[in-house]
Predict the 3D structure of the following.
Amino acid sequence: MDTNKNEVEATKGILDELFQHASRYRSSVEFSDLIKFLSTFKNYSIFNAMLVHIQMQGAKYVLPAKQWDQKYGRHPVPDAQPLVMLRPGGPVMFCFDVSQTQGRPLPPGIENPFQVQGNLPEGAYQLITLNSKQDGIRVNDRALGSTLGGYVRDANNPYHVIGAGTFMEKNQRMYFEGKEIPLLSEITLNSNLSDEVNFATLTHELGHVYCGHIGSGDQGIWPNRTNLTKNVREFEAESVSFLVCQRMGIDTPAAQYLSGYLNNNEEIPEISLDTIFKAVQRIESMAKKRLKSRINYE
């Protein structure tokens, strides 16, 4: 077997192990600890954060040995526990938590670098709405009542909507950068609310879309999981919103929802961590840069 195949096998093995461990987070207490950790571990992808949590619960700040030396003049202690993480472009890299290093004194804040600021990163809201169009998702603003933050609907099904109302139009199309493309989903946000509030709602509704709660939009870009119960759909969407917002430094009502559920139930619903993490990773990418379209324009 050649080197590339070995690397692919190694990466696949790590991902398999990641989701084999998912069952251990079925209890509300363990799931609560997990999402709190993932929401603060912002320096790496959601998948890498999960890998670190599996290997070392309580890790705070993780870097490869070379970066510890270059940035902070520190190095791993003898017999330090290396943490395996996925390397962009693959397959893996070995990192060490701050607790496993020694050397120069740590700069202020390095042991607790994950404080929520409550300010939306500049341009993130606009980038997400732009990239949503790349996936055939139109984001609208309209004046709604004070108790309704927004809703999402399947543009191919006039009777399918999560949040409000019934729509009679179907098979709609929209124009984007001079091209007519199919409208797969439509999200409506409350124009009476601030960008920060609407951002939390937008991540929740995108969570519904990318977790497949309103179908695949006849394009197969996201899964079709419309057979889930409302309880599972809302728990997954709130988990997506909580993780995206907290990792970006934004407070979100999802925190209260999840806290209330976890405090009143011994186990979480039959959710898919894999689907939640993929949705989080997609939305985080959408907030950082312009992405290529995944829509079939034909």
In short: Residues 3-103 form one domain. The first strand starts at residue 62 and ends at 64. Residues 112-117, 164-168 have pLDDT under 50 and may be disordered. The chain has nine helices and eleven strands.
